[in-house]
Amino acid sequence: MGQADMRRLSAKWMSNMPDSWEIGPDAGPQTQRLSWTQLDGERQGGIWKKLCAVADGCEAVAGSRLASEQLHCSEMYMRMHNRLLQHAAAIQAEGQQAQEDAQERTGMEAPTIASSLKLLKEEVFSLCPLHFLISGIVISFVLTMLSFLVPAVQGQLVDVAVDAARKYAQQGGPESVDIGEVLFEPIVLLSVLMFSSYFCEILVGILFAICGHTTVTRLRIKLFRNLTEQEIAFYDSHVSGELSSRLINDSQALSSLTQFTTQTVLGAVVKFAGSLIAMYATHPQLALIAGCLEAMMLMFFMRAFHEATIITPINMVLVRRTGKTVGHYGVVQNHAMAKANAVAVEVLGSIRTVQSNVGEQQEAVFFTERLNRYLRIIKATVYLETVLRFTQYGLSKIRNIVVLAVAMHQVITGSLTIGGYTAFSQYVNLYEDGFKNLADIWINFKQTVTSTGKFIQLLLRRPEIPFEGGFLPPVCRGSLVLEDVSFAYSGRADLQVLTKVRLEANPGDIVALIGESGAGKTTLGRLLLRYYDPSDGSITLDGLDYRSYNIRWLRSQIGFVEQEPVLFDRKLSDNIAYGSAKGAPREEIEAAARRANAHKFITDLQSGYETHPGERAARISGGQKQRVAIARAIIRNPKMLVLDEATSALDSENEHIVQQALDELMRGKSSCKTTFIIAHRLSTVVRSTKILVLDKGHVVEQGTHDELVSNEGSRYASFMKHQIVSPLLS
């Protein structure tokens, strides 16, 4: 095939070009659209010169079947590529819908490249151990420099061997050439370079592995701390299983990006740029032919990939498309896996409920559906990514075959030595390796910053109720005033849970909150703990607004005993001392347990205070859990107490024991505690110094037991008349 045939082939490739394309870094207001016919003669001539240069180079294979076979392979590959993309369209549509659903649920925007780079610098790379990172970068640079010396020495070794073989053949006999002397120096030099490279690779691998593992550990710690400081309203709208998935999986992805990027980006840039220079220095004509083939393949595949550019190499086109594809599905993959993980955590944490209701099969089906959704998205990602990567691989092989044919022609004619070609081919490999690393960095970066968008949000999120700052008074008296407090939960602003609640409580007061289910008793207790801030009105403590105090200090002044207390699967001694400012010695722990009527049952256990109660304290009874929780509140000796009636679900014997512990808690080391009791039992209400009767968020009655019972028409009096736990107190 001569120049005329090659021109016809080029014309066929040109016919596949789009009618117009965009010129500019990105589509936008400044983008210009330019058609082929609008190109001036000089620019058209420049493109044709490149095509003719390739045609001249391919004259080296004139008369062979190589050129026609390449044309046939290119056309066949193009048809196969189009069929694969059409087949993947259905899967891609499903992935697109999944991504839209995920974004609609989370309400998050895809992070931009600029914001992602800023995040990596400020939040991720700052967590890397600096000495390991710098050492790894320096050694990685040395390793890259060594990689450029190896091809030159290999080429020199080949030329020396060929020259020695020629002398051996011409002069005859082993006496004509001292093979050991001829090959000794280049072999020793090559061995030193290879072993040095191998040693550097080991060091680089160790250093960046340490960087990666250290970074992921610090990322998880940082996110965990940030999650534990979020306001309770945040957890009302987030599933714990999904958050744990973000904590483990997404942090690992960001760490991998840190490790992979720092390890390869410098070497990739040096390899990519240095290999181009080395290729041109070794053999300019071969380098030009390879570049022209790249340009021609760009024109041929431009329409297939719908890329509007005339200056971007075909590999860049493919990398950009691959990065877009992988990034598109990354967020959907992570969201789907987080949902599946949330199901698993919820079911395994509630296994008694599942088994008691024979729900094993139902939950297995539900979990399978979530995982199958994740699998479908993975298939879509792998399918399209593989097609694009294989396209890039196939194009590079076409170019290499043509370059090989031209190089062999020049070797035969004597214009290129075998050693020169060996060095050139090694530099081509370095070029491809450098570009592949840059492409992988870009694709990995796009995938990571897109798929970890939720992680980034969580990492940067600041709580609406800040943990830092605020007033730290030297002492707390416990005088509390609620002034026209109203409250509605986020997302239900039209449903007022509390409306214009007024209350004053002083040290020594025991305030009982009674009312029907949903009346607002528990919500009022949550406001006292500052889980939420009032929608309207104010709460003051010792004359200062609740919000002016440091949140940690405020909660340290409040003892909270829930109706269903939570114990951690740690030693019982640790559970009792939990929340103590500076920990507590064993003597204080045991003293608190005695006052809470918990010491005897604890010492009766085989491991005593070292006993682990199990997940959700499954190894001890409900009454025992209550007493441990009361001991935990006693050891802190708070100024205020919020008690969600701890005896409502206990039998009479356990109720009496726990009630004694509660009485001890309310007395404390002094009788000046301000106590709020969400009451369900008549005995608790009667002992209160102040009673609030709530109905649909309003305080309908307020007073002492004697004041309220004397009013025959009051709800409280009706309750006392029946002497039972009525729905009013449920």
Describe this structure in words.
It is a single chain. With 730 residues, this protein is an alpha/beta fold. It folds into two domains: 40-460, Up-down Bundle (ABC transporter transmembrane region fold); 470-557 and 673-730, Rossmann fold. 64% of the residues lie in helices and 9% in strands. The chain is built from 24 helices and twelve strands. It has helices at 3-15, 41-58, 66-106, 113-124, 130-171, 179-228, 232-236, 240-282, 284-305, 314-349, 351-356, 360-413, 418-451, 453-460, 521-528, 551-556, 572-577, 586-595, 599-604, 622-636, 652-667, 682-686, 705-709, 715-722, and strands at 20-23, 32-35, 480-487, 498-505, 510-515, 536-541, 544-545, 558-561, 640-644, 674-678, 690-695, 698-703. The strands form three sheets. The chain has a six-stranded mixed beta sheet with strand order 8-9-10-5-11-12, sandwiched between helices.
Short summary:
This protein has about 725 residues and is α/β, with parallel strands linked by helices.
